[in-house]
Amino acid sequence: MHTPLCDQLDIEFPIFAFTHCRDVVVAVSKAGGFGVLGAVGFSPEQLEIELNWIDEHIGDRPYGVDVVIPGKYEGMGTEDDPEKLAEMLRAMVPQGHLDFAKKVLADHGVPELPDADSNSLRLLGWTEATATPQVDVALGHDKMRLIANALGTPPADVIEHIKASGRMVAALCGSAHQAAKHRDAGVDIIIAQGTEGGGHTGEVGSLVLWPQVIAAAAPTPVLAAGGIGSGGQIAAALALGAQGVWAGSLWLTVEESDLPPAQKEQLLKAESRDTTRSRSVTGKPCRMLRNDWTEAWEQEGSPDPLPMPLQYMVSGDMVARSHQYPEKALDVMFNPVGQVVAQLTDVRKSRDVILRLVDEYLEAVDRLTRLGASV
Question: Does 375 have pLDDT greater than 70?
């Protein structure tokens, strides 16, 4: 399992692990993969703390950072100052949406947070103004080798800034058209994420999407994402022309994950049909576990979810209260996860997951080799 990207990034296996947990980043990179820290929920100051910790524990292994600079969002291009942008956007959030969200939480007995701890009406890293400082922080860390953008083609100046530092730029996409835009903008790695994936996805299935993106992006290398849960699926992705895989859901239930035990248990019990694509948390279609929160926003008479980033300024309080009181918020908490959730059946160390993927990949390749030899 060795592709040109392994040489470019000095990694053993082309297995990229997207996670919001620094412990998982370290464990995956030390096991020969490439850990990528999702930065959207961190302030620049918090991100600096996270990356310093990673630097201290990861040894000489590389890692990456994932930011969110959407190609289109409310308030785009109006403000460079994050505080002024946040103030402008706060005024655009209808009180009715805030009241509706608070009622859903109250009806489920989720305690309120002290005002100082609440995430309500916080902007976080969902815009260029708030994500660019995160990029600057990441570029201050030598072992950080790759910055990925989760939504849309990164702005030209951001791409130039990252590449001028000697780092690589990646971007996710859900269509061949988006892949071509990434390629033409100078993105180094394109991540093709099928609708099966967790988080923000399009509508096209992975096995259909991957070859379309690989053809449209050529000669730019492509990572396959969406539904990666076994070594056999990695073999399929590489057989189609991908240079590696990008997996996120796989790391939610590992031993190093910082998810509360009750939340991990929810994921371990879930089936593929328990997921849904919903705009109820971020404002864009995002695959997550279906629960009372997603259902509430779909009921007749409920407010329509707002565009990004306004909807998260409504749902951020739910996310914060769920983190604080996970056992009381199980029926409403944000659980972004892909349809591969049905393959998450036990808790393992990240290293053991990597080794299992490699073993399964080798078994799949051997099976295909024997089939070819018998022809």
Answer: no
